[in-house]
Design goal:
By secondary structure, the protein is α+β, with helices and mostly antiparallel strands. It has 3 helices and 4 strands, in the order αβαβαββ. It has a single domain, classed as YhbY-like (Translation Initiation Factor IF3), CATH 3.30.110.
């Protein structure tokens, strides 16, 4: 579980990141889960977005994706959200 200080650090890091994963109208598919898992393993912190035609809200997509890839929610604003999960080779050091 992340502390508020760790979450704030991750949020500031995510500000400059590009969105790399989009949730389409099919919602969170097995392919989306695999992409998120691989991206988290490579980067630890990823920014995602829910597209216009999707039935899920960003919060619902965030919660579902976190559960499936065992990640921590960092932030959810509008249609965008940020996930964090430490990888085997730690890239981000949190206090």
């Amino acid at each position: 579980m992340l502390t508020s200080k760790q979450r704030a650090t991750l949020r500031s890091m995510a500000n400059t990141m590009d969105t790399i994963l989009y949730i389409g109208k099919e919602g969170v598919t097995p392919n989306t889960v695999k992409e998120a898992y691989d991206a988290l393993e490579a980067r630890e912190l990823i920014k995602c977005a829910v597209q216009q035609g999707c039935d899920l809200s960003a919060r619902e997509a965030l919660d579902e994706l976190c559960e499936k890839v065992h990640a921590e929610p960092v932030q959810c604003i509008g249609r965008r959200f940020v996930l964090y999960r430490p990888s085997r080779q730690r890239k981000i050091e949190l206090d």
